[in-house]
Amino acid sequence: MDYLDTTIDDVIDTFEFLDDWEDKYRFIIDLGRKLPPLDASEMTEETRVRGCQSQVWLVPELDDAGTLSFRGDSDAHIVKGLVALMLLIHSGKTPKQILDTDAKAILGQLDLSAHLSPMRANGLFSMLERIRTVAAEHAA
Amino acid sequence: MSQLDTLPKLDVAAIRADFPILQETVHGKPLVFLDSAASAQKPECVIKAEVDLYHHYYANIHRGVYKFSQDATEAYENTRETVRAFIGARSTRECLFVRGATEGINLVAQAWGRAFLKEGDEIILSEMEHHSNIVPWQMVAEEKGATIKAIPVLDDGSLDMEAYKSLLSDRTKMVAVAHVSNSIGTINPVKDIIKMAHDVGALTLIDGCQAAPHFQIDVRDLDADFYAFSAHKAYGPTGIGVIYGKEDLLDKMPPWQGGGDMISTVSIEKTTYNDLPHKFEAGTPNIAGGIAMGAAISYINSVGFDAIEAHEKAITDYAMAVLGRVNSLRLIGTAKDRCSVISFVMDHAHPHDIGTILDRQGIAVRAGHHCAQPMMDRFDIPGTVRASFGIYNSTDDVDRLVEGLQKVVDIFG
């Protein structure tokens, strides 16, 4: 996650200084812009997490040390920023650590948890489900 | 006097006062509701019609000999007459109550399609159809070995009528098209479409969801065989709608769902069916919804379609003009005949981004494919932002939308 040049804790700290919704969204959008786009060949039916209004792609990778990392992308800027947040929250952890992570609580600290509701059409909820499914498969 | 002065005026402030929800704020901003094409807000009289039933005279209908059952039956069946007059049907027997247009289309696809479609028959739809006027036909076509063809859409968002003509043949058994496109607002020439279908012996179903709230429908003038609309897009409640069908066709169609209310006599060996419209209305219906749908139509009638049409045309024309000047915005669908729906995309932001930034400013629009994916494919876009107008919108709402879009340009531009 070096390319994002930050950690989820830094993001939470930064957010405390941003009181305006617009600044928060600008920050999220900038975070998304730092996320390297997936190669077109990686945007397959298999990696696609379908949403009604925007699409998300997620590529999981397991390294030799047994930690999972994820790369992701979206066709919408704000969602891509939220994808970046989700990657910050989950990447570089063991499957067990991922399953112990409460992403919704972390997004709640950022006042963004509404984006994670099951009915939200942006694909983020499905993305979280997929991250946890992949973690569960590798934790077994 | 200019022609404008003679048009019936709509008092938008008075109308807005009828809709309690319009007093709400969203993220601290007064609500600008521009998603009536998805579902319209409800006036107090519609809300009250439902509450009054439950407070004062609720009982199941079509069965009781006691007063409340009779009162509720009368109120429910009064709506049927209101609906009949609203769409110009010959008889209330032609006005079936269903959950909404989706169920109405499924009813025709199943009851008519399964009885009368044969292998090799063709059903003609259009590229601009809502999924609810595609999928039911695909389901029955697959079962019966029929084929589906689609009328292409031209660049301006109107139907390619030359192509339609060439699709028609003696194999065509059903032509099912939208009266008004839900995704881009084109008003289709359905009277011509119906006439051309009848000339080859085909039947027609018109999806009138986006027409019913906006202008007068006359199923007899159109000569439509079936016509569907949902109450909730016409200021009425959810879970109720109408499928109109010509009586001789409905008579020939077998029932779709079995249950109470749709029967005449039942023995374990044999059931005889009730008369129209009840033959197609199995089970206890949406009683409160039916009664409130009547209130919604009466409300529309009290405002009057002359005033509604003039008002909504003025707003739509104004919106087309001012939105066209927003930096990097491209309108999708610019057909001459259009109605209360404007769709657009912007260069630097995805529809989802635009919808999110507008939401933060208290502006509700729809962002996405609008349940019309073939239409989005036609224009090679993932979706659009759709602003749609109802009787309670004003040019102030359009101005707020334009301001909101300036913010989108600031953030993403």
Automatic annotation (TrEMBL), chain A:
Domain Fe-S metabolism associated: 13-133
UniProt superkingdom: Bacteria
Family: Belongs to the SufE family.
Identification of the protein by name: Cysteine desulfuration protein SufE
Automatic annotation (TrEMBL), chain B:
One GO term (biological process): cysteine metabolic process
Catalytic activity: (sulfur carrier)-H + L-cysteine = (sulfur carrier)-SH + L-alanine
Gene3D superfamilies in UniProt: Aspartate Aminotransferase, domain 1, Type I PLP-dependent aspartate aminotransferase-like (Major domain)
Entry's Gene Ontology molecular function annotations: cysteine desulfurase activity; pyridoxal phosphate binding
Name of the top EC class for this enzyme: transferase
UniProt EC number: 2.8.1.7
UniProt key word Thylakoid: no
Domain Aminotransferase class V: 32-401
Keywords: Pyridoxal phosphate, Transferase
InterPro entries per record: Aminotrans_V_dom, Cys_dSase_SufS, Cysteine_dSase, PyrdxlP-dep_Trfase, PyrdxlP-dep_Trfase_major, PyrdxlP-dep_Trfase_small
Cofactor: pyridoxal 5'-phosphate
Transferase as UniProt keyword: yes
Entry's family note: Belongs to the class-V pyridoxal-phosphate-dependent aminotransferase family. Csd subfamily.
Function: Catalyzes the removal of elemental sulfur and selenium atoms from L-cysteine, L-cystine, L-selenocysteine, and L-selenocystine to produce L-alanine.
Protein name: Cysteine desulfurase
Organism: Kordiimonas sediminis
